[in-house]
Amino acid sequence: MGKEMMIQATEIAGGQWQLFRDALKSADLPADDIDLPGRTFFEFTLDSETVAWGGFETHGTDGLLRSLVVVSTHRSKGVGVTVLRVIEAKAAELGIARLHLLTTTASGFFEQQGYAANQRGSAPPLISQTEQFMGLCPGSACYMCKALSANARK
């Protein structure tokens, strides 16, 4: 296989917010709550070109993966996997032991990356009370979870 992708993650600030909102809207992902406290979002670049956006919400030792979107011209090239690994590493650095998510279209991708589908009612209280769970994502969205450290409980 080829050399590892050198994707850079930069926390979103300033004028990047509108570009991020536009990327979310073009991917039909929720953007209404991205500027609330407790959220960390990144722009991901490869050779100075934006290839993806994504981040997470922090809720104690649990995190909620938010809005991972890969620019269409970079899909199916391993960018999503690399970006997800970076997000997981950054979440773990902040003490997040488990990463949760809701998806309507990418459960297969996340399952391949070690996420397990669970009953929505099994989510921890702080996760189930997020904007995503309470209404931004439809009730039909698949709830998934992954332990980021060996010490985390499922």
Which descriptors apply to this entry?
single chain; 154 residues; alpha+beta; globular
Describe this structure in words.
By secondary structure, this protein is of the alpha+beta class. The protein has a single domain, classed as Gcn5-related N-acetyltransferase (GNAT) (Aminopeptidase). The chain has a seven-stranded mixed beta sheet, with helices on both faces. The model has no long low-confidence stretch (mean pLDDT about 85).
The percent of residues in helical segments reads 25-40%
Outline, from the CA principal axes? globular
Q: What spatial order of strands do you see in the largest sheet?
A: 1-2-3-4-5-7-6
Content-based structural category = alpha+beta
Oligomer: single chain
The pLDDT mean sits at: 87
CA-CA gap between termini: 33 Å
Portion of residues in beta strands equals 25-35%
Uncertain residue ranges: none
Structural Rg: 15 Å
- Annotation, overall tally of beta strands: 7
Count of separate structural domains: 1
CATH superfamily: Gcn5-related N-acetyltransferase (GNAT)
Instruction: Please name the CATH topology.
Output: Aminopeptidase
Largest sheet: 7 strands, mixed
**CATH class call:** Alpha Beta
GO molecular function: acyltransferase activity
Pfam families: Acetyltransf_1
Domain N-acetyltransferase: 4-149
EC number: 2.3.1.-
